[in-house]
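U., I forgot to send this yesterday:
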Amino acid sequence: MRKILVLLLCFILFIGLLPMTVSAAEIEITSANITITPPVGGKLPDLSAVSSDPQKYYADVDDWGLMAYGTVTPASAVEFKTHERYELRVIFRAKFGYTFAEDCVFTINGGTTGCYSKDGNEFRYTYLYAADPTCPTYTVTFNKNDGSNTTDSIAGVFDNYKLPSCMFTAPVGKYFAGWSVNSYLRDPDDTINVLENTTVYASWNDIPASGYTVTFDANGGTGNMSKATNRYGEYTLPECGFTAPSGKRFAGWSIWPGNYGIEPSGRKIIVWKDTTLTAIWEDIPLGANVIKSANYDVTEPFAGATSKAGIVSTTSKYSVSLGWSTTKDGSNLNDFNNKTFEAGKTYYLDINLVSKDPYTFAEGASVYVNGKKYTAVWTMGSSYTKYISVYDIPFTVPSQTDTHTHSPSAWRTNQVYHYKVCTTCGDFLTQEDHSGGTATCNQKGKCTVCGFAYIEENENHNPDTTKWIACGNLYHAHLCKDCGAHAITEDHNPGPAATETQPQKCTVCGYIIVPAKNHKHKLTKVAKIDATCTKPGNVEYYACDGCSDFFADKGAKTKIDNTVIAPLGHNISDDWNYDENNHWRICTVCKEVLAETQLAHETENEKCTTCGYDGTTIKTEPNTYVDSDVDINNDNNDKTGSDNLETDELGQSDNNYENSSLWIWIALIAIIVIGAIAATIIIYKKKGEKHNEKENF
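Result:
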């Protein structure tokens, strides 16, 4: 009987595992199609694409772009222009349990798609449209020019057209040397303007006795790349195999002397002589057109609300699009777009950002979502900084009974904006961009609302116009009150010529240009003034009353020109201070709280990833004070002194008192529980003894 039960159990387990085994094998998709509304002049783009089989894959509009002069400008939020050409980018991605076959056919509106890029099991296609059915198009015809084979003409071309590789067979002893377009020789992958029906001619050259050599110049980089020998005709530029110089990245290959004409890897050229490809390096972008951080604030989902998807925001620098999913791993990405949230469920948000020309995202750019910092990932290749994304941001919809009246905090801050949260539930409530404030030559400009230093220092000096300071024998200057620099300068204005007893002086500042002919130095000592973090000082020196020269010694043997000591600048502490809401660093010299370092906690697993704050002990530097949850007004954020030290000590005492009280209560409760258990045991034991006595009686 036991053996029969074991066999029956094994059979049941086999039947149960069978469906799991079948489902583990992904089903291949052999064709996929997306239907979109073609562009019409004066109409907004319709982003609600429809796939032919939404159960197996999703197909979505990634972006519309306006094609002009070989560049693409995002245009998903503006009306189509009549007689303009637009580029549409769409995404095909298989759903869980499915995968695209290697030979899968992708179509848009039933027609074949254009160029594509592949990222795992995701395919992004490019398709070209005219914004009006009456927009004229032209035909490109290819002439084999004594070659053999035939090829079809390309119809429906407008404006820019990229020349293909040669599709003809060369005459005997010849190789393809490029396309002749209006008597100009062009390489494959060159873009031409097609404004009329155009014929391009194949051009042929004699095959050389020995091929040409392609060599590679590191141009300051390191490493080696092997020569390509015996080459002629069409050649594809390789990936760079050199290591970039410090602070640089690969920008492309220069084919011509003088680094003229930079071309990317993968581009096709014609090799018709010995050729050197020079690696061109560019600075890793750090300038004004580089976006170091971006932000978008999502309305917290609530039961009955509809999820927003597609492009939801555009700024002058970038656009933001959203996609919602019910699973974290992304297997059902965009399966919850424009649907109704349900109470008690968790949904996952993907945010995609596209920069607008001339802007690009910095490597390692941050994206702030509802005040929390995320590190973006590249969606179009490791070095392509136009598209970045943040995936799988969870949002749990509260149940109907979890509602309460929000209690807003004071302003909190990050690099991009200041914001308020609910002090009860932590929900994001409101935000404002930093505003106001003026930067100086040695101080960053602070937001007048929250005090965050968000404007970089500049060269706008604050000159002291009440006095001129002589600066050598050439000019005098109004010095900057903040940093001591020569803010405004003028040449000396010479007075009457020097005599036996009178020097020649500048009539503006009094500088002695030419001393009296019988002049002897009469020195006055000027004491040393130490420079501070923000204020200039001066060295100890001796000034001559009769000639305005400065000397390092009282014997007037060593003349010096510059006596000013520049401000030292803040020495930023390596350690973080923190309270319940923010963390910050201080200057180890002047103990000033550095506002640009004061940021909200970025919590992961209930612990700040920056300073380590876990919600328990508050850490502040002695003699410093930061009130992180009040309306900050400029210098109120930088209080120092004994009063603040006393406050910190009292606060610490309160914490110790609360901790000790908590342990006392725990001990008392434990004693009561143990006593109750002991009393119960004794009572039951006595009842048992009485019961036994009665039975014995």
